[in-house]
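Anyone able to model this chain together with manganese (II) ion?
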Amino acid sequence: MTETLCFASQPPVTVAIQASQLRFPVHRIFCVGRNYHAHAAEMGVTVDKATTQPFYFNKHPSAIAESGAEIPYPPETSNYHFEMELVVALGAGGFQVSEAAAIDLVYGYAAGLDMTRRDLQQRAKDHAHPWDLGKDFEQAAVISPIVVKDERALLQQGAIELSVNQSMKQSSDLSLMIWSVPELISDLSRYYRLLPGDLIYTGTPEGVGPVVPGDCLRGHIEGVGQVVANIVTPAV
Ligand code: MN
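re: yes, here you go
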């Protein structure tokens, strides 16, 4: 029996795959909180890997914006920030996955922007509230086409950079991640039964900052590619 919906459902969220006609269907979006020491420091925090675990927040798949999109400056903020990040795209599921087996879950990688209403995130921190208003909103998860990983290819190093209007703002290296891609997949799979279509934004290096309408963001990750976003004035 075919079920009948009371109104049309929203279309599934999908992402382009580099050099392919196929599209990647997005299931969930996990984001890692603090994964570079220099970014943690600029947020006023130190991270001791020996005594802390990574932490996560989520964005709804409807927050996806593909590279090249025009992104209206979002409502209720006056401090809208970029965070340039490596995104891991899972093509297989797993639960309680070992670090050694984690690579088998990886479908590919993308360059992403974890766009953030920093003032709302700070307000949430101040009140010990959830971060959702600061992190999970329309077009807050910008993503490049996914590059399918080569056999066994694990991204352990490579330049990660972001410029605003051709002025370099972030410049770091994936080797400076506190928790590596296999460590993150293994850790996350303790809490969730990971599934194909899950995306993991792996955290940003230092140099985050605000943007305004008219700004063009260009991020690049060595071996992965480029992500572009144009911030525009919202229609009233
Ligand atoms: Mn982030």
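The chain has one domain: 23-232.
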